[in-house]
Amino acid sequence: MLQISKRSQYGIYFLLALAIKKNLISIRQISQELRLPYRFLSQIAADLRNKHIVMSKEGSRGGYSLAKKPSDISLLAVVEALDAPVGLIDCQLEKGCNRAGHCKFRKQWDVVRNDIQNSLDKYNLQDFLD
Length: 130
Hints:
Blueprint: H1 6-21, H2 27-34, H3 38-50, E1 54-57, E2 63-66, H4 75-83, H5 90-93, H6 106-122, H7 125-129
Antiparallel strand pairs: 1-2
């Protein structure tokens, strides 16, 4: 079954919590409210910060906030920030597949992958908040 990873799922939950709060919030608070593992959520937050999807402020009044409007953060951006490019089969993610020149199925697999990417790109965080 095709399924997004826990990493991407928790990342989306984290971002939705930030969108709802609309102010700085700590990872610890989100972790407790959503009952998500603190260390795992910290790693996710760091990756989202490195991809400029969230911003952070250190200190006793610090925390995280969205770096963009919820409508500007697509599900595809979150999945690719946390898990790498979307691919369905190994050769879509690997460079130099040994069957690349004569594979009869690759073209159709690419169509399927593009449809999934387009679907993930079509939906954004705001869609979950409306």
